[in-house]
């Protein structure tokens, strides 16, 4: 393993005490460390304190991956353990990514993260997925991020934050306004993923206002929240803010309450986002009129689109517009998904591509390189020349 990377990923270790974790740290030069991956293990308070002391010596750390490190821990343990780790990261100016996903913090364990999220203004990627934050915990996180943005502005600096991933956290409407304020304040976000949070129309409207302040947004995922007509309209108004948008996931968002064409799709079909490459609209009560509009608008207004997902809408297998869309995307090297079978076919094709690539790599590895061939070729020529000379020698 590289001296720059420390990984215990997925080893299933139960590290309770200093003595448990120190064997994995003692031979690592913290000053050289750039990445640490501890996911899939479980850390107790003492082990986390020892880890914090180790991290305090790290001066080049870029990636801190602490997803899924508290499985089986008591709610009384997690704040102390989390605090020891987060406090050690506050001053890391080299930090690029922090991942604390898949840890069951709940709202009660949020406080130890607040100083880090407020005062470390170096990291650009924040991953907090599946933490059970709830509305109160989510609002506390968002408020910390807002304070971070305001402190940067006060210092005359731009925010470094570019990616927020905070899905499956039950954020709901209760934290949506706080998130909208934080997102707006950072202003340079390129990727925001907040799926499966139970956010409803009023919260979506607030988020749309905050997201619209981020002109560089390229990837937006709000799957499995509830837009309804008001949320769809608010997001439609925000679409023109994102000239670089390439991926949009609004599946399971109730874009249409009554089968009418959602205003959001009408806006997309007018060319609001010409760089859009992947559009996910599964399970949105979409009907034939919407498919007709997609078939009409995509050829000229979404020239970059390659993947369109429409599963679990009101799809008629004989719909000519869907066949037209399928042919168009196939000609572009892309795909239309309207059923589970399409997804299975895509997975099979991907597996076949991977197998073919692996086979080519194996064959390539088996073939001698040009450098390896040179000596052999020279030797062959020398042998031929010697044989030719010998054939001309007469023995008397």
Automatic annotation (TrEMBL):
- Enumerate the SMART domains for this protein: LRR_RI (SM00368)
Q: Does the keyword Repeat apply?
A: yes
Question: Where along the chain is composition biased (Basic and acidic residues)?
Answer: 359-375
Q: Which organism is it from?
A: Gloeophyllum trabeum (strain ATCC 11539 / FP-39264 / Madison 617)
Span list, region Disordered: 336-379
Comp. bias intervals (Acidic residues): 339-358
> Which GO biological process categories is it annotated with?
nucleocytoplasmic transport
Q: Which SUPFAM superfamilies match?
A: RNI-like (SSF52047)
GO MF annotations, alphabetized: GTPase activator activity; small GTPase binding
- For this entry, the protein name equals RNI-like protein
Looking at the UniProt record for this protein, which Gene Ontology cellular component terms does it annotate, in alphabetical order?
cytosol; nucleus; perinuclear region of cytoplasm
Keywords, A to Z? Answer: GTPase activation, Leucine-rich repeat, Repeat
The UniProt entry's coiled-coil ranges are none
């Amino acid at each position: 393993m590289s001296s720059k990377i420390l990984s215990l990923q997925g080893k299933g270790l139960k590290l309770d005490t200093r003595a448990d974790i120190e064997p994995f740290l003692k031979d690592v030069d913290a000053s050289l460390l750039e990445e640490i991956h501890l996911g899939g293990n479980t850390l107790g308070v003492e082990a986390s304190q020892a880890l914090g002391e180790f991290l305090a010596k790290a001066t080049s750390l870029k990636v801190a991956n602490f997803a899924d490190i508290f499985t089986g821990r008591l709610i009384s343990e997690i704040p102390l353990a989390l605090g020891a780790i987060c406090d050690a990261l506050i001053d890391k100016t080299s930090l690029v990514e922090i991942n604390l996903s898949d840890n069951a913090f709940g709202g009660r364990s949020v406080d130890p993260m607040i100083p880090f999220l407020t005062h470390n203004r170096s990291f650009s990627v924040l991953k907090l997925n599946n933490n059970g934050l709830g509305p109160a915990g989510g609002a506390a996180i968002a408020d910390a991020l807002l304070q971070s943005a305001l402190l940067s502005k006060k210092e005359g600096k731009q925010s470094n934050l570019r990616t927020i991933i905070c899905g499956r956290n039950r954020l709901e409407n209760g934290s949506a306004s706080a998130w909208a304020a934080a997102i707006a304040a950072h202003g340079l976000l390129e990727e925001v993923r907040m799926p499966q949070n139970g956010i409803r129309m009023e919260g979506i409207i607030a988020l749309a206002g905050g997201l619209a302040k981020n002109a560089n947004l390229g990837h937006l995922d709000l799957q499995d929240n509830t837009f309804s007509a008001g949320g769809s309209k608010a997001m439609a108004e925000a679409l023109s803010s994102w000239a670089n948008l390439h991926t949009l996931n609004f599946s399971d968002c109730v874009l249409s309450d009554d089968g009418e064409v959602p205003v959001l799709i009408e806006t997309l079909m007018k060319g609001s986002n010409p760089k859009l490459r992947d559009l996910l609209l599964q399970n949105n009560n979409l009907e034939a009129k919407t498919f007709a509009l997609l078939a009409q608008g995509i050829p000229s207004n979404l020239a970059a689109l390659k993947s369109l997902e429409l599963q679990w809408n009101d799809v008629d297998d004989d719909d000519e517009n869907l066949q037209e869309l399928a042919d168009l995307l196939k000609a572009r090297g892309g795909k239309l998904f309207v059923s589970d079978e399409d997804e299975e076919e895509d997975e099979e094709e991907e597996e076949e591509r991977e197998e073919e690539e692996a086979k080519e790599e194996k064959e390539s590895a088996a073939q001698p390189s040009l450098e390896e061939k040179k000596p052999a070729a020279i030797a062959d020529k020398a042998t031929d020349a010697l044989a030719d000379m010998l054939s001309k020698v007469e023995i008397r």
